[in-house]
């Protein structure tokens, strides 16, 4: 049961937060779920109460407490054969993905009604703020706005036009824009993303930037044993004097993995004992393999097409010599913070709507990596080779990266800044 709303905590009055996010442990898909897991725990540790509303795959409890966070997962139903009867052509074109839209729609409707009919009206909960994350929870946010006077904050981690290169769903874009207009505040994850939102006509006066974070106690090189690191490198066929490059993330076009593979021949010219390890899953898996085969570098590109648990991610970071994330659309990108916390030099995309360039310092005494044009294999190869050419300097970049994480990019810092914004909406 949530605490009494009369209690006062450091920095202001206790907040009771309704937190709508489509992925939450143990059901994780990507960075949004990682964000939700850590930031809600920080809210609770800072003395606030959080009720999370999230998707249920049918196997999870509909209500439970996880590390102090109250989690609600209403059971959904399949209406995917009903939507095409009355929805617009845009949704009909989703094809087999109509089931995904169904699940999101059902999750939103059932979560919103449970929120105000169940918790507020029946059980007497009093919420101070509601936050919704991306379009995936915006329908719930709009319904809560209709039914209550609780301030609603729209957290924007990415947009439909960014994810799709301007070719996405009109329905999703309309949902995003409606939530932006009807929210009290908008929080986004980088200055690059804020600029992109305002260029698309979103109300600039509403938008605040709060960077994401990482847990440096978990993401620490001290947590990996050398024998485990050696064993992993051996598994990927990397010799004692070999070089391991690591890409970790969803295998989708915005990550620019094909360009990274196309950069490898130029890396191998200078550093022939290099192997690129690609860790993740997504729609580009076959294209990545085809590109490596076309370039004749199959033996230098190793694939692990899977979503691995956190302990394995830690081990991969520890085993890598350089981490490379050449995204061309990445509003924030937690993977670079994870690599930085593990004291690894990073080569990151910095063209377009990319938050990496706010994390990675590319020159001066605090340098911790290099910026490249993620669309250009030549530039990606330059960044990798420049990093590999001076191992001692690269090691110092890694140490600088961890110090930068400790100063600016912890989950406690992200949670504190977010709570300050929530507090500003209290009357």
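^ Assign residues to that structure.
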């Amino acid at each position: 049961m949530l605490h009494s709303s009369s209690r006062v905590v450091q920095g202001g009055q206790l907040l009771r937060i309704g937190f709508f996010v489509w992925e939450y442990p143990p059901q994780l898909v990507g960075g949004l779920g990682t964000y939700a897991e850590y930031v809600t725990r920080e809210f609770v540790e800072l003395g606030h109460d959080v009720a999370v509303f999230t998707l249920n795959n049918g196997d999870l409890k509909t209500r439970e407490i996880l590390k102090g966070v109250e989690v609600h997962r209403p059971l959904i139903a399949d209406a995917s054969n009903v939507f095409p009867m009355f929805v617009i052509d845009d949704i009909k074109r989703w094809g087999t993905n109509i089931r995904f839209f169904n699940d999101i729609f059902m999750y939103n409707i059932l979560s919103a009604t449970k929120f105000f009919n169940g918790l507020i009206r029946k059980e007497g909960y009093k919420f101070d703020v509601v936050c919704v994350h991306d379009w995936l929870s915006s329908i719930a946010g709009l319904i809560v706005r209709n039914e209550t006077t609780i301030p609603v904050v729209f957290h924007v981690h990415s947009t439909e036009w960014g994810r799709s290169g301007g070719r996405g769903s009109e329905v999703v874009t309309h949902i995003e824009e409606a939530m932006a207009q009807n929210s009290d505040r908008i929080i986004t994850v980088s200055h690059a993303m804020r600029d992109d939102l305002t260029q698309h006509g979103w109300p600039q006066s509403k938008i605040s930037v709060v960077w994401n974070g990482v847990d440096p106690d978990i993401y620490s090189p001290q947590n990996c044993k050398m024998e485990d690191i050696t064993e992993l490198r051996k598994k990927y066929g990397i010799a004692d004097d070999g070089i391991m490059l690591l890409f970790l993330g969803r295998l989708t076009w915005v990550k620019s993995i094909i360009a990274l593979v196309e950069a490898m021949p130029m890396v191998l010219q200078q550093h022939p004992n290099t192997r690129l390890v690609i860790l993740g899953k997504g729609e580009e898996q076959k294209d990545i393999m085809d590109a490596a085969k076309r370039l004749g570098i199959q033996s230098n590109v190793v694939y692990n097409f899977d979503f691995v648990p956190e302990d394995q991610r830690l081990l991969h970071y520890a085993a890598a010599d350089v981490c490379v994330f050449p995204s061309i659309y990445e509003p924030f990108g937690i993977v670079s913070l994870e690599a930085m916390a593990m004291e690894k030099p990073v080569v990151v995309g910095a063209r377009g709507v990319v938050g990496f360039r706010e994390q990675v310092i590319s020159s001066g005494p605090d340098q911790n990596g290099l910026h490249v044009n993620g669309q250009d294999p030549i530039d990606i190869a330059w960044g990798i080779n420049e990093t590999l050419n001076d191992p001692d300097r690269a090691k110092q970049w890694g140490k600088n990266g961890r110090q930068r994480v400790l100063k600016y990019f912890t989950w406690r810092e992200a949670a504190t800044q977010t709570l300050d914004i929530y507090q500003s909406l209290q009357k």
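Confidence is low (pLDDT under 50) at residues 1-8.
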